Structures are given as structure tokens and as C-alpha cells.
């Protein structure tokens, strides 16, 4: 367990850096062991801090995990905003969103494990998170605007629910990657081979775009 060494005391004088280090350590611990298996002692060791500082800044394990899962969702929402999808033609915007989501999952596997852990606990840490509700509401509105533009141009159906589309875009990548080990055995192919990953991405893009075509 980490102790109050002179170095630790020195680091604690920079609250922002200390909190950031604790959150990075907590993200690692929770993504590996889930909420149930993670231990505050391990977070303290990873952060080169101590439990007293963790409790001081984040209250308890429940609140620390809530902050970690909130940050995980906000990170992907923030990255999506930087795509400037509202400035792209509708079809290009949706394709870019599908591609981004897939690549984000590949680059941030801890996001998937954190979401898995929160679902095991029935989203009890997100239920009262207003910041997450607002972030996702903005995302749904943006996708809705893209769909409306596409419908006006006659390239998308007019009855597509943006929430259903967001779920589908997340699902076609999420399931593949969270089941990559069992899937590789069941289907007798390496699902993480670069060629397989690219083929899956193209399949995802084609699947989503076909679902939006007008009748």
C-alpha cells in the first residue's frame, strides 16, 4: 500500500495533477478488474498516492468509479464533436461516424470493459449523472439533424430514429470486439487480423448505410 512518503506529500501539493493521476490509475484498475474486483489499495499504488488522498478527492469507491465511467463516455463524445459531422454531406457524415466509432473502440479497449462493468451493475453509477444525459442528448440531436438533411436530399429514409441508429453503430463494432476471443474460435478465423478488421469495418459501413436507404 502507498504511504505518505516525502515524494507523495510533494505530489499531493498539486491537486490537479494528483487527481489526474488517481483517475488514470483508477481507469486502469477498473478496466482490468471491473468495479467489483477493483481495490482502492491497488489504485493508490498505481497512482503513487494513498487511500486518504483518493477518499479526499473522490469520496469512496462508488464515486470514484462514477467519475471514471463519466470521463470514459465524455471522452468519446468530445472526440465525436471534433469530427465536425454537421458540416459534412449526410452520407459522408454517417460513414465517418461509423469509422470513428470502430477505430475508437480499437484504440481504447478499456472503454468497452468499463461499459461492460457498468452494465453488470445495471448502470447504477450513471443513473444520476446529468452530465452524461446532456452529452448523449447533444449527440442524438446531431445525428438527428444529419438524418433530416439526408431525408431532405432523398438519400435517407425519413423515418429513422437517431437513437436506434446510434445503438446500431455502437453495436456492430462493440459485439465484434467484446466477443473477439470466442468468435475467433467459433468461426475459426482470427478476428483481430488486420485484414479481418478492415473487412469488418467495411461491412459495418455498408450495413449502416444500407439501413438508411429510402424504400
Automatic annotation (TrEMBL):
Any one GO molecular function term: DNA binding
Superkingdom per UniProt: Bacteria
DNA-binding region: 39-58
Keyword Transcription regulation part of the UniProt annotation: no
Coiled-coil spans in chain: none
Keywords: DNA-binding
PROSITE patterns per UniProt: HTH_TETR_2 (PS50977)
Domain HTH tetR-type: 16-76
Protein name: TetR family transcriptional regulator
Source organism of the structure: Marinobacterium nitratireducens
Amino acid at each position: 500500500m502507498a504511504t505518505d512518503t516525502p515524494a507523495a506529500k510533494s505530489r499531493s501539493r498539486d491537486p490537479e495533477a494528483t487527481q489526474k493521476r488517481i483517475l488514470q490509475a483508477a481507469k486502469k484498475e477498473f478496466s482490468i478488474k471491473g468495479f467489483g474486483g477493483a481495490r482502492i489499495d491497488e489504485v493508490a499504488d498505481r497512482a503513487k498516492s494513498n487511500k486518504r488522498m483518493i477518499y479526499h478527492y473522490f469520496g469512496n469507491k462508488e464515486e470514484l468509479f462514477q467519475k471514471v465511467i463519466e470521463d470514459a463516455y465524455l471522452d468519446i463524445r468530445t472526440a465525436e464533436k471534433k469530427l465536425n459531422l454537421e458540416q459534412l454531406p449526410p452520407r459522408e457524415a454517417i460513414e465517418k461516424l461509423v469509422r470513428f466509432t470502430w477505430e475508437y473502440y480499437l484504440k481504447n479497449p478499456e472503454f468497452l470493459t468499463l461499459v461492460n462493468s457498468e452494465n453488470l451493475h445495471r448502470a447504477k453509477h450513471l443513473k444520476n449523472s446529468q452530465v452524461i444525459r446532456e452529452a448523449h442528448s447533444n449527440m442524438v440531436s446531431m445525428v438527428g439533424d444529419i438524418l433530416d438533411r439526408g431525408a431532405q436530399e432523398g438519400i435517407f429514409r425519413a423515418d429513422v430514429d437517431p437513437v436506434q441508429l446510434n445503438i446500431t453503430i455502437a453495436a456492430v463494432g462493440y459485439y465484434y470486439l467484446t466477443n473477439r476471443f470466442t468468435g475467433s474460435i467459433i468461426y475459426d478465423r482470427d478476428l483481430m487480423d488486420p485484414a479481418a478488421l478492415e473487412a469488418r469495418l467495411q461491412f459495418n459501413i455498408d450495413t449502416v448505410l444500407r439501413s438508411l436507404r429510402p424504400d
